[in-house]
Amino acid sequence: MNETASDLRQPMDAKEIETIVAGFCSDLRRLREEIGKMIVGQEEIVLGVITAVLGGGHALLEGVPGLGKTMLVRTLAECIHADFSRIQFTPDLMPADIVGTNVIIEDERGGKHFEFQRGPIFANIILADEINRATPKTQSALLEAMQDFSVTVAKHTYRLEQPFFVLATQNPLEMEGTYPLPEAQLDRFFFKLKVTFPGRDALHTILDRTTTEEEPSPQPVIDKRRIQAMKQLIRRVPLSRNVQDFAVRMLQASHPENAEATALVKKFVRYGASPRGVQTAILAAKIRALLEGRYAVAIDDIRKVAAPALRHRILLSFEGEAEGIDPDQIVADILEKTPEAV
Prior knowledge:
Blueprint: H1 5-9, H2 14-36, H3 43-54, E1 59-62, H4 69-79, E2 84-88, H5 95-99, E3 100-106, E4 112-118, E5 125-129, H6 136-139, H7 143-148, E6 150-153, E7 156-159, E8 165-170, H8 183-186, E9 191-194, H9 200-210, H10 224-236, H11 241-252, H12 263-268, E10 269-271, H13 275-291, H14 299-310, E11 315-316, H15 318-322, H16 327-337
Parallel strand pairs: 1-8, 1-9, 2-5, 5-8
Antiparallel strand pairs: 3-4, 6-7, 10-11
């Protein structure tokens, strides 16, 4: 069902809600199945990336080379018939190489004028490959685009076409010659997803598809307009006060100076997640609820999305880093010790 934005602004009865939720689930299932033709054994990562797109955010993928991160984002672009652009981040990459620059153009009469030449950021889906290999100055070229969906060059602001989604990758093993992403930029990512090594069955399927004549080819299943309508539907999903309160207390518990903080947070965390963390968790929980055919969010939906929403927003203390604490441990401890009601 392809409801428009105006349809979603109208009051809906139970039958209309049921129909729209069923349409959402059907479209999301078709999108996941089409991506599954190319990406094997990473169902949660695929769902996480789609969730970030529908939540209006961006995703940071962390994983060793060869796990299909590039193929995932390229396949996603093909499945929603969107413009795709890949930017390979290197130490010598400059901000103008990303956003574009003004160049001198000579017309047929010999006159000269400046004309803006758009960079690769002018696409719907951007793969920022090995983003931590570029300098902080170049990394910051993405900040305005990720937050405001625009870029400013020579005091002129250019809007980016919607949907706009950045999927950045980084290798957790090779840290030499890299520049850690600043906290302000990490906070702009909707999710941080950890791409794990596939299991034996998945590896067999990958080999069957890549070492034989079988060449799967994904096809467009939904368009960009439908993505925008789905994003608006998500924001209309109701959220009860007690579920929202649980999400707020979960966020507060990540700050060591807060009364809600757990002993593990007080010992190993320097600074907790920002308000964007709880905004992300709520939007992602709404998507999870719709995926299960519900037009309301439960506390369990918040729990399911807490780790990818908060793990990159929790800053460990020196002691936490020295002890090798994983932020996922902190999130799990917060979820375990935060009561559902007070």
